Structure formats: C-alpha cells, structure tokens
Amino acid sequence: MKLEKTSLVSLATISVASSFLIPADERMLRDKLVPQHGKAGADAEHAKHKGGQHSVVKHNSAKHHKQSRKQMRVHKHDDSDSGSDSDSGSDSDGDGDGDGDGDGNYESPAIAPLYSQSLHPQNIIPHRYIITFKKDVAPEEIDFHQQSINELQQQSIAQLPHDHPYFNSVEGLDLQQPIIDSFNINSLLQGYIGYFTDDVIDFIRLNPLVQFVEQDSTVNINEFDTQNGAPWGLARISHRERLNLGSFNKYLFDDKAGEGVTAYVIDTGVNVEHNDFEGRASWGKTIPNNDEDLDGNGHGTHCAGTIASKHYGVAKNANVVAVKVLRSNGSGSMSDVLKGVEYATASHLADVKNKKSGFKGSTANMSLGGGKSPSLDLAVNAAVKAGIHFAVAAGNENQDACNTSPASAKYAITVGASTLSDDRAYFSNWGKCVDVFAPGLNILSTYIGSDDATATLSGTSMASPHVAGLLSYFLSLQPEQDSEFATSRKGGITPAQLKKRLISYGTKDILLDIPELTPNVLVFNGAGQDLSDFWNISKPADLESNEVYKNLDLVGDVLYDQFTGIFKKMNLL
C-alpha cells in the first residue's frame, strides 16, 4: 500500500473514511473538525477509500456505540471536564482495559474512549496524552497516522491565541514535533505519546486505528514513612509460624537463590556502586528527559536491596538492572513508566533470543502508582506475556487497589503490606486485585549517600520487592527439564505458572485486619528446605508446553469474561 503525503483536507477525510460506520453525534464531531471547504470532497474521498485503498477497521456502529456509552461512559473532551470516568474502577476483570481479557481484547466503540484521572485531577499533565493503537495495525499505517497528526497539530496550534494554556504546557518543547515518543511492547501494545490540542484529540479518537486515548498523569513512589527499625522482613517470609524472640532475625534460605536471574527495578534508579550489590547491579536506562544516571531519591536503591543485596536481599545472587522512570522527588509521568516497561521487556527478550549464558529468566518490580491507567496496566500485562515475572505495589491509600495502576494489572502479582505482628499495615490497599501480602513496615535495606548507606522505610513499596525477590528466588531454583518436578516440557516456568505456585504456597489466614474479598496470603520461601511441594503444585496441568498453557489461560479468561457478563445481566453477580 503506497501512502502519499496529502493536504489537511484529504488527511481529515481519510481519517474518518467510511462515515457510514460513525454514529450521528460522532459525525457531527467529525464535521466540526473537517474544514468546511473540504466537505465537498469528502464523498469523493470516501468513495476512493471504500474500495480498500485505505485500511478501515469495521464494526457494528450502533451496537458498539451503545455499549461504549453504557460500559465506558465515554464523554466528549472539553476544557470544562477534567477527564473520563475510568478512574471509577469499574473494570470487571481488573486488567485496566475497561472491558476485556487482560490483553486489550475488548469490543471497540466507534469513537475511541478517553480515559483520565477524574478522581485525581491534580495528577493530570495538561495536554499530554497516551494514544494506544488496536492490535495488528500495520507499521505503514502507524507512520502515516503519526505524520498526519503532526501536520494537523501544527495547523491547530497556529489558530490558538498566544496566551492559550496549551503553550504553558509545552514550554521548552519543539512545537514542530508534538509527538514526543512512541512505544511497542513485544507487538502486544503499540502507541505514541505527545502534546495535543483538544480538537486534535477529538480527531484522533475518530480514527479507526485507535483503541483508546489516555490523558498522561503523574505517578509517585509508594513509600510511606521512615524510622529506625530492624530487618525482620526476610525472617518473616522464611517462617510459617509467627515470629518470636528466637526467630525474628533469622532468615532461612537457599544460598544459590537468584543465580542466573535478572531483576529490573523500574523506579528512581539504583545506587549501582553500593557495596551490598557486590558488582551485580548495573544501569539500564534513564527515561525522563534531561535526568542523570543516578538515584537521587533512594527509593529505587532500597527496593533493589530488598530484592537482591547481600545482607538485605531475598535472592542474594540475582543481577539488578536500574530502569529510572521517576525523578529525584519520587514523581514522574505515566508515559515514562510505560517506556520503562517497554525497555525492560525488550532487554528481557534480547537475553532470551541471544541465549544469554546461565540466564534463567527475568523479574521486575514497580513500587509506584497513580490513578487508574489502562495504558500502564496493559503495558505490564504485555510484559508478563513476554515472559517477565512482575511484582507491583498495591498502594498506600487504605483503599481498593483496583482503583489504582499498576496494582490493577491482571497478570502481575499485586502486593499488600503486612507488619511484624502479622496485621495488614494500616496504610495498605486491599481488595480482590491484591494477590498476596509481604512485610512492608520498618524495612531495612540499602540506600543512597554512600556505598554502605542503609535506611528503614515503610510502605507497599517495601512489600513488593520482597515478592520480586521471591520470584527471582524460585525462578533460579526451578527444576531441570529432565526432573520429575519440571514445570514444562519446553522452556522455563511461565509467569502464570509461578504466580499460581507462589500464591498457593503462601501461608494462609494468618494475617489480621484483612477486609472482605481480600486474599489472606503471606508469602513464604520454603525456609531453605526441599521445594518439592512447591514445584508439585498443579503439576499434571503444568506438564503441557508453555504455548498450550498460555492458550488455555487465554481461553479461560475469555470464557470467564463471557459468563461473568451473562450472570451480571441476570443479576446473579
């Protein structure tokens, strides 16, 4: 398909080709955006592209338009409304896509939904958006679309008064390049990021290639407070029974745990020169523009230490890779976090492709969060599908974790925080999106300031790296392929298989103050003993190949979603 540069008029009509697919109110929006002098040529353009010269995704407009209004409450974007309602947490499967199976497979309305942090308007980054494409969009279609949007945006800002708020949002940026970045996570999630006027966003939402649009927003670390304390967390995850004076400072573990595993710490960076990492920490990438390759906050270094440091780590032989997505103040943008996930995924896949010597797999930790973000949830889900074992913090607002991202990402392991006395930490989020709990109050680990610095911090930020470390721990100790406990005939254990085992192997019903519908599971490492029971969990079903397992998992998701929808309509759920 040859794509040629066109005028704004033909560009606009191409983007809204096949107007018979667009409901009446959306056609009115299209007419507002298409220049009046170009409307005469719209029918000709429509006839030209109806014949197949331009790819159009067809769908039943009336049905999808009705569903989009009912399920997603899509609204028209204007300056009087800070955003859509998808912050409400009405996501039946907890995957962040609004209504689907966790991979972004959901019925698309004729006009793409606009998601925004309406519950947290202070987190919105004005005029900055994340645009996500539908699956299987061709590269040439993406290139043509982005070129067209760049041209349209430049014409749009030329019509704005010089004192328009848009110019405050883009101060210091190149107005000729409104698209500032793009992303592609293992071909499962593609899109771009940029600064756009309201009219251009309305126009983008009409393009049949676009799945949804999300206003970019800030995210923050999930650290709660700082005080002096003792390193009890490692001891707790290696004992079934409650800790006592004889066990509170004893960590029982396999001294080979972590070997061959790469742990990506997507955070504020890592003090890679810290002595406790023993040379196993390296710098991966700095995502925020004009930032330094160092941890100026300490949060990321603390999390990395809980995962893999010599004295404070769960998996003491794992390799740590710093992926800096937050600045020194502990804050950053949702789109930068998404780019960090993209980097970790690409690095993992490169290690797999290159058959890196001794490589046993990758884990990742994200101890950060913000309001509900379908883009970030789907990015995490795509990374898990690519093979990364992902742990994320549940959040510190003492609310339903399903209202936040990435805690609501379906395929990650979402971690709440527990205390030394086996209570749910009073700040920890809860709900059905939480998978397990781990120590999160007064956790001692590595820090910044010197190459031997330590600090004691609290939060679900401190709980999640216990689980990322535990994923690294088990991943490195998985049975050989000829073992009777092998989890698959081809390849290593999948994230879905390991997640299932970790939850099943945890200590049940020992925590106090666990709200209704919240799993009462405290993670456990096996106390350095034989792990036959761990690897034997659901062994018969796991003996199929990884691909079959993934297919069955997807079929199960689809059936679950379908039956759940039926039961809800019958008022049975």
Characterization of this structure:
The chain is an alpha/beta fold and 573 residues long. It has 3 domains: 60-218, Alpha-Beta Plaits, CATH 3.30.70; 222-542, Peptidase S8/S53 domain (Rossmann fold); 546-573. The chain contains 16 helices and 20 strands. Helix 10 runs parallel beside helix 11. The longest helix is centred in the C-terminal third of the chain and has 24 residues, at 546-569. Residues 1-99, 225-230, 482-487 and 540-560 have low confidence and may be disordered.
**What is the CATH domain class of the largest domain?**
Alpha Beta
The radius of gyration is 24 Å
CATH topology of the largest domain: Rossmann fold
Q: Which spans have pLDDT < 50 for at least 5 consecutive residues?
A: 1-99, 225-230, 482-487, 540-560
Number of DSSP helical runs? 16
CATH architecture of the largest domain: 3-Layer(aba) Sandwich
* Overall average residue pLDDT: 79
Domain count: the total is 3
Number of strands: 20
Give the distance, in angstroms, between the N- and C-terminal Cα atoms. 48 Å
Shape: elongated
The main β sheet shows up as: 8 strands, mixed
Instruction: Report the CATH superfamily of the largest domain.
Output: Peptidase S8/S53 domain
Counting copies of identical and different chains, the oligomeric state is single chain
Percentage of residues assigned to helices: 25-40%
* Category by helix and strand content: alpha/beta
How much of the sequence lies in strands comes to 15-25%
Biased composition (Acidic residues): 81-104
Domain Inhibitor I9: 128-221
Pfam families: Inhibitor_I9, Peptidase_S8
Biased composition (Basic and acidic residues): 35-46
